[in-house]
Amino acid sequence: MARGEKRPVTVHTIAKHVGVSPSAVSTVLANRHEERRLAPATVEKIRAAVRELGYVPNIAARRLRAHDPEVHHHELGILTSFEAPVFLVSRVLRQVQRLADARTGAGRRYSISIEMFHAGRLRAMPGLLNASRFNGVIVTNTVPEDDAFLAGTTLPYAVVVLGRRLPNYCCVLDTPGEIGRKAAEILLKGDCRSPVVLTPALLTQSTAERAEAFCATVRAETGREAARVAALGFTPANGAEALRAHLGAGRRCDGLYAVTDSLALGAYQAIKDAGRRIPKDIAVVGVGDHEHADFFDPPLTCVGPSNDTIVEQVVTQLFYLMTHRRVKPVEIFVPPSVVRRASA
Amino acid sequence: MARGEKRPVTVHTIAKHVGVSPSAVSTVLANRHEERRLAPATVEKIRAAVRELGYVPNIAARRLRAHDPEVHHHELGILTSFEAPVFLVSRVLRQVQRLADARTGAGRRYSISIEMFHAGRLRAMPGLLNASRFNGVIVTNTVPEDDAFLAGTTLPYAVVVLGRRLPNYCCVLDTPGEIGRKAAEILLKGDCRSPVVLTPALLTQSTAERAEAFCATVRAETGREAARVAALGFTPANGAEALRAHLGAGRRCDGLYAVTDSLALGAYQAIKDAGRRIPKDIAVVGVGDHEHADFFDPPLTCVGPSNDTIVEQVVTQLFYLMTHRRVKPVEIFVPPSVVRRASA
DNA sequence: GTGAAAGCGCTAACAG
DNA sequence: CTGTTAGCGCTTTCAC
Known about the structure:
CATH superfamily of the largest domain in chain A: Response regulator
Distance between the termini of chain A: 61 Å
Oligomer: homodimer
Radius of gyration of chain A: 27 Å
CATH topology of the largest domain in chain A: Rossmann fold
Number of helices of chain A: 12
Largest sheet of chain A: 6 strands, parallel
Structural class of chain A: alpha/beta
Strand content of chain A: 15-25%
Number of domains of chain A: 3
Shape of chain A: elongated
Largest interface: A-B, 75 and 74 residues
CATH architecture of the largest domain in chain A: 3-Layer(aba) Sandwich
């Protein structure tokens, strides 16, 4: 902390500062001074210098030093913005780990880490451009700025993009149009006459397309317009508030498609508070395979991306890219999953 | 893939194999052969060799090479087993990132990554013992085997343990005894006469203590024994099944403490299916500050660890340890949070 | 067009 | 008890 802020502090710096050799410093840092029988006074002086100079070990150097030449070490990264549905990320992680475990062997190890970036600041992640952090990455939950960055540069290692179309990378995508269409069909077949779609006010590419396709389908099949309700944010509370306002204003609604899980949860509360029954008065459709949808009251019918399939594709692609490098980018579309439950 | 499995493959290996110099190989790997005007034939031969020999770049070496001596790079790790409630981990991550961002400056960068290990296999995580991966770590969701490993060795860098007591490390803990006691008090004050505690069959130290304290409090206050219902696993489905069996057998229950969120969710379904009302027939208490507890139907009263406070303590400790190294281990206990809602 | 050499920061082996 | 030396694998000058 004290003074070494601008000049880099290395074991060498400390050694000179104390008047000992770098190896003595190294020994103390690893708590091996006993077996090396360093003089306690020396140890103390070194410790003091370490603290005073604010020494931070260089991890890359240590790793290189510790490296066992018999094993290949693969560094995999899952890169996601903070504004992410964690549960999807954790599924990706689990799947990556499963496949990595299956391939781990004598001369092969995998390290997998999740790295979060602030939306729009992917370019600032260190080591991305010079390939000094990962052997392969999965990129997801990007915003347009990040996409522009990616599109403008071809990273020289394995990259799979989840949920975006970028011409120079392998991409795995859901089909938001089809999702919206199917959601509309389910509601319309259930004799819904005044469909509503509940979205966050800030639409992502994906949620926008879902809502759009929903409305288009309603228009095509009935000639009427679906009502659009925009929640301020992504939380259940936002969803509840928005739908409450809609219902409170006496506007019609006998069928609802909520484009995210959390909004559906909030919608349930608003509907019940308004004294309406699900699905009798208002049928509700949410998005795909939420782990708790079965325990909503009533259980929630879902149309949305089949995340497990998506994740599987992503991970398969990543490993493929890492072994056969420089293949032509592909786009993989995964059709939606539909789970019918009691709410529609 | 093909043959280089046992002998380590480096740029040097490839260079020799093709009959060029390491620098040529390096240039091709970084896609810089254009500006260096390598012969296209050479480039192709190098590419072929790279593929054939299954070359994997050594990330540590690249990092060391790319290292800018003007900035200190801090590697922070959040180490958690797979059997983890992701949402807690993601809170830790957010908080760490927040504090790291605040400290990031000219000569200072932080990288934060989540690393998952298989329960009981923490010792197998590479680079833990020789300090070649992290400058500081937060360890959580360990099982006894992992704890034994940690207790037996003092890692020579900043370590904060979340949710376990280990004599040689800084630990931050909730107070499961107090949690169980408060849960019991809430139910008993609500005139509950036949309390039940719902737990997973496989108890962690923490869930066991919560259940134990709950039963002890019931015993002390009423002289009766609380019934214990064990669910096969941790999911809502497990919880629903277990409680359904209990209620179906005609056994009494007018107050329930579920020691995890998911079990509470399942319990709701079982209770409603049995035609009972919450809280009129059966009052329900869940654990701390679940983000969706407000949207349970009815909203769920919670007694549990106050995760935000815990996370704050953990992260504060970590940064403290990194700047003032080798301080005496401390134990920090964070009292439970109580949020009263409609379910009890 | 291509190769040789230097050195990033660290630690283990070997000499004193 | 302590210092010197070598080298982990990589990329970037610089020289040919």
